[in-house]
Amino acid sequence: MNHQKVYESIIYKAKSENRIKLRKNQESYVYYDNHHIIPACLNGSDKQFNRQLLTDKEHYVCHKLLTYIYKGNRKLACAFHRMTFGKNGKHNKSARDYAYAKELMRTIPISKETKEKLSKVSKGKPSKKRGIPISTEQKKKLSIAGKNRKHSIETRKKMSVSQFGKKLSKEHKEKISKAKIGKPGNKHTKEFKIKLSENNKKYKTGIKASKETKDKMSNTRKGVKKSEEHKRKILEGRKKYFEKLKEEKLIM
Question: Which pLDDT band, with edges at 50, 70 and 90, does 204 fall under?
Fold first, then answer.
């Protein structure tokens, strides 16, 4: 099918009828949509010579044809998707058009300019879901889904690369600490404490880490500099540890 010819034939037919925006047809009124012959996203003029009145069906078909004529155009795909689904998704649509509109949105990527515009618009705006409490049933479902989900090795690598070198600000740390205060989930159970102590004992009895583990640990710490407070805390912790060993007469 020659989509361009079909598109032009619809436009020529509409022009030949000398349509008016709203006209009376016997007892009812006929309403026409104003359509850009050359789309505005393709630098089409907003003047009258580039506009044509079309019926609802013609308007929809023309937008569908434009997605075939200008393949890969995200803005035209969005326009067709909006016409198919509407704002609330309540528009009547055929299975073919539904699948085609969805496929366009999945396959055509968003440009960098559009992403930047979206990020600028969304900056400073609160989330729509913020403040809406989650039900206990929903929480259970989320926890079950999270437990059963296993990330692939590639995904884990991507996650580690994206988080590597990131430092939390003081405000962020304070918010995290405030959010954790008073929550029962932050206190370790007795069973968990016993497991931790057993693991620590194993490491103290001379079990050495493998070369792979050592390499991983060294790579994760590369480029990370300790603050003076951190160094002071480490020294204080070591002193206390050696004092305990002296009290227990494990060292002289």
Answer: low
Phi/psi region, residue 208 (left: phi>0; alpha: psi -120 to 50; beta: rest), is beta
DSSP structure string for the chain:
--HHHHHHHHHHHHHHTT--SEEEETTEEEE-EEEESS-GGGT---SGGGEEEE-HHHHHHHHHHHHHHTTT-HHHHHHHHHHHHTTTS-S---HHHHHHHHHHHHHSPPPHHHHHHHHHHHTTPPPTTTT-PPPHHHHHHHHHHHHH----HHHHHHHHHHHTT----HHHHHHHHHHHTT-GGGSPPHHHHHHHHHHHHHHHTTPPPPHHHHHHHHHHHTT----HHHHHHHHHHHHHHHHHHHHTTS--
CA–CA separation, 45 and 188 (whole Å):
67
Residue corresponding to tokens 């009812």: 28
Residue 52: name the closest of 4, 3, 10 by CA: 10
**What pLDDT, in 10s, does the model give residues 36-88?**
999 988 988 889 899 999 888 888 899 999 999 998 899 999 888 888 887 66
User: What's the predicted TM-score (pTM) here?
Assistant: 0.44
pLDDT tens digits, 111-161: 888 888 888 887 777 666 666 788 888 888 888 877 777 778 888 888 888
- Yes or no: say if 77 and 108 are a contact pair by the CB < 8 Å rule: yes
Give the domain ranges of the chain: 3-115
Cα atoms in the 13 Å half-sphere on the side-chain side of 233:
5
